Amino acid sequence: MEALLQSFLGDNLLTLVLYASLPLVLILLYALLAILGEVKISAWMQDRLGPMRTGPWGIIQPLADVLKLLQKEDIVPEKADKFLFNLAPYLSFMSAYAAFAVIPFSSQYVGADLNIGLFYLLAISSLNVAAIMMAGWASNNKYSLYGAMRGVAQIVSYEVPAAMALVIIVIFLGSLNISDVITAQSGPVWNWMIFGGPKQDVMLASGTVFSASWVNLVFAPFFIATFVMYYVSGLAETNRTPFDIPEAESELVSGYHTEYSGMKFAMFFMSEYANMFLVSIVTSILFFGGWNSPFGAYLGDAVGLPWLTAVEQLGWLVFKGLFFVFVMIWIRWTLPRLRVDQLMYMCWKVLIPFSFGIALIVGFLVVVL
Amino acid sequence: MEITILFYVFAALTLIPAFFVVFSRSLIHAAFSLLFTFMGVAGLYVLLSADFIAVAQIMVYIGGILILLVFGVMITKQVTDVEIQASVGRTIPATIVVAFAMVTLIFILWPVNWMQSDYLPEIEGTTMELGELLMTTFILPFEVAGILLLVAVMGAALIARKPEEVQS
């Protein structure tokens, strides 16, 4: 992909900038789809029609929403800390977008193929915490501050089980490289982590051979539990219901972004949706094969078109990601909100002990088998 | 050439916010400036091919220490209504201490023969070597640091508890 861009534009800064902005296109398109999905799916779940007037069945509603946000007046509260108030939305989106740098969208497009990709993913998401804190404090509004403090407490707590879930996969695979995680799951559907990982020896992206056999099926129950754990922590880290305590509409107006309007609100909105997509994509990479086709073969390989294979891989990853975004929306309109004490109980007394237990068992099994 | 530009970008990202940290009167502003300093330092680590340390820098300093700092300042200010401001005081002892530290640093740094490389070195993963060293040669300091942190956490929990709960 990079070589293709270089052949058009030459080896210069423009190529790099274009190469780095490709995921942005995907995120923007996805955000439009997700806004529509959220309103329509919630409507269907509640036996309503949802937006029906903008376009057939309301399908251009997201464009109307974007236009509305563009026209809105950009209000900065008089007592707000203006510099930090203006900086926070950009920092928030930056942290969400920076995480996409290490996501392999297909075998041909990996922004930065880091050796420590999984660790980077965990670390960069902590920037979002700083952005939320900045927004909550700079707004000079008690609802914003409460929302920010709840949000930060929640994200910092749930980072632990999310990190442990990644650690369990890393213990099994022996690599922090995200491309390795995906190539280990290549081949048919039973090689996915959720079914216990690869069943025969496989050459990892970094060149080492990962030896495996059908005995790996014993890992399946532990990886299913890990998947549930990671997905629940992901829901909490993106402040989605049932963990939307930081923006609980009925108590806090809308949490840390109460005072934001217009495009700055849109930036927070985008960063929340980008984070949802990120968690969904990471879930599908860790447990559902990433860009691997569930059939183990690609149409592009069969007809001899390499670019078609790459597009198929992107398609599979986006499809899996969108499916988990759909599950998030589904959960949002099904479950009620947790209380703060239930939230902390869930994290510190359920998820964390279980994650340590699973890590011990998986570590033991890796050594024994 | 590119590495030189990158170095100056990261150095500026480290130093300019660092001046704000020192000279800002508002502690919150100082804390948030520290965010950019930490990011600049992480960038410098990347230029030194220390990938693991760079990410650990972001994780520990931005995700942990900075959040703790901001939380502390914010809660103290919002709950007790005491305006926390950095103030100028004890000028003479501070000048002496800073001058002493400065002279020490200059004496340490001056004789070093700094190497300058014109190309970006190939980054090979340092994670595996670090892990092996921590589990073999440096296992004792590693474990002692772990115990120290555990003791600190337990001490903090003990202090934060209400006194009557401690006695029961």
Summary, kept brief:
The complex is a heterodimer of chains A (369) and B (168). With 369 residues, chain A is mainly α.
SSE order of chain B, one letter for each helix or strand: HHHHHHH
What is the ordering of alpha helices and beta strands of chain A?
HHHHEEHHHHEEHHHHHH
Total E-strand runs of chain A? 4
Number of helices of chain B: 7
General form of chain B: globular
Number of domains of chain B: 2
Biggest beta-sheet profile of chain B: none
The quaternary structure here is: heterodimer
> Treating each run of at least 4 consecutive H or I residues as one helix, how many helices of chain A?
14
Helix/strand class of chain A: mainly alpha
What's the story with the biggest beta sheet of chain A?
A: 2 strands, antiparallel
* Helical amount of chain B: over 70%
Highlighted features:
heterodimer; A: 369 residues; mainly alpha; 2 domains; two-stranded antiparallel ribbon; 14 helices; 4 strands; 2% strand; B: 168 residues; Four Helix Bundle (Hemerythrin (Met), subunit A); globular
